[in-house]
Structure formats: structure tokens, C-alpha cells
Amino acid sequence: MKVAFTLLFLLLSSCSLVNTKQYKNSGSSLIVTYDGVEEYRRSKDYISEKHLVDLMESEKEFIVIFAADWCRGCKLARKAIKQANLKVNVVYINVDEKWVKKLMSIMEVRQIPLMVHINKDGKTKASRFGAGKIVTYLISRF
Questions:
Q1: In angstroms, how far apart are the furthest CA atoms of the chain?
Q2: Domain limits at 46?
């Protein structure tokens, strides 16, 4: 009986140790929508529609860049902008998201990366296509 109890104890205690390894976040994004409304977002790279609306209403100058993970020029621009330490808020929106596709259709955007400089009044101050033109514009002004 003692042997059976000891074996059972060892078996149960070893089972509890099976899944103790912690996994780091892969950095991937997660967006949860319910009835067409975004309920949750975990993304370090792209902002939500609500965040963009909040920025537009904030009366602060900022830069919006239309980008995608698969876009080589977008990656180059993002890296250069990060290294430049600009003194302006730069945010990215993912062209693969449904709301961004609608926005691109309205704005007649056909290529990326696209930068749109929004002034304090919420109006477009400037726009540039292509990584080189975007980075040059931002570094020369900020």
C-alpha cells in the first residue's frame, strides 16, 4: 500500500511539472472583432481605427504611414524612422485590415508605403510615396 501511494504521489507531482515552461510572446498581432466592432487589439506595430480617430481629434500634429508586413519598402522606412528618433508622433496602419482598405479606397491610394502628415487642425499637410521620399521628408522636418 505504501508503495502504491508513493508511486501515485510521484506520478501526480511529475504531471504538475510538465507545462512549467514560459513562452515569450512571439510579437504577432491579434485583433478580435465582434459584430464588426473591434473589441481587443494586441499589436505593437499598427494602430486601430479608434486610435486614429482619437489622434485626429487631439489637435496634435502627427504622421500616418500606410504599411504592411509583406512590404519591403515599408520595413526599410520603419527601420530608418525608428533610428532617426524624430520629434513627431509617427503611427502605422496596416493596409491588410478591412477598415484601412476602405480608407485607401476613399483616398484612392494605390501604392505603399504612403506617408500622410496631419497638422494640428486635422488636415493633410503633405503626403509622400516610397520609403526614400518618406524618410527624407521626415528627417528634413523633424
A1: 82
A2: 42-141
